[in-house]
Amino acid sequence: MKAILSPYFDVEGPTKFLRRGRFVEHPDVAQRGNQIRLGLEEVGCEILFASSQLELRESILAVHDRGYVDYLEGAWSNWSKMPDASDEIFPNIFPNRHVAQFNHSPVALAGWYLADCAAPIGEYTWRNALLSVSTVLEAVFRIREGESAIYALCRPSGHHASQDMAMGMCFLNNAAIAAQEFRKQFTKVAILDIDMHHGNGTQQIFYHRSDVLTISIHGNPTNFYPFYTGFEHERGLGEGEAHNLNIPLPAGTGEASYLQALEKATEVISSFKADVLIVATGFDTFKSDPLGCFALESTSYNQIASKIKLLDLPTLFVQEGGYFVPALSENVKQLITGFENT
């Protein structure tokens, strides 16, 4: 399997984020990218780097709101010109969008477009997000040309980013942009999100559509991030009804229960008759992950990938979460091995 990496897969990430009312060290550290790359190399993946020369704006605007994209592009420049501006952009006011008037002040825009304090914007955030998009698009192009499977190592992740808001360390929704690009060739696209947290941004983007099936297996949001979405009754609306499936699982979920949920997900993908599969791949389901609550072992990812391979679809793995750095290389090795040896 080929692996395509963002040129910025190993850059320093944001410095802090808000967790349970306290600012703590941001978990998206540079070592994450290094360990995942190490695992990809050790398992024999051919390592390629995404180009910074791709024209990305059309593909991004096919998924994201133009005003939001314009904000992300100029956010740091406008913010840093303010007196006493912080080193990273955090919103200090969250408007009620039902009644609020749009305001072009940098402080107001931060509250309008950043949904939480886990997605701070720094000097290089836009650059890094763009190259994550470049990474998945190069993977898409290769699969459209006949590759059977590719791993896209993106940083930052994308599945929490909605059409017009950033949250949860995500700014541009890499998996959603890839799905929209796949639709240029394939009739039906399935997105299977195996990250610890509900893929709320992906759900929101495709919630009214029947050509892209979205499935997320995640921690029960009753008392877990992102709290407001990811419940079983969210099934899609209009043409999208029955084309969104959430499988929330309780804290402490181990391999056996997880694989049962995955079996349900793969049956739905088979019934949908997808032409291509995107796997939003998070390793924060690992037992020691500081942002997780499941109990998967490294070998669990071998079993997960084996079940995914049985779908027999062109498959794009898109990197999402995974924050227990010491296990990341082994986790990705198990995933690739399980997929390629099935």
UniProtKB/TrEMBL annotation:
Domain of life, source organism: Bacteria
Family to which the UniProt record says this protein belongs: Belongs to the histone deacetylase family.
GO BP annotations listed: epigenetic regulation of gene expression
Keywords per UniProt: Hydrolase, Metal-binding, Zinc
GO molecular function, one term: hydrolase activity
InterPro entries: HDACs, His_deacetylse_dom, His_deacetylse_dom_sf, Ureohydrolase_dom_sf
Cofactor requirements of the protein: Zn(2+)
Protein name, as recorded: Histone deacetylase family protein
Histone deacetylase domain location: 27-337
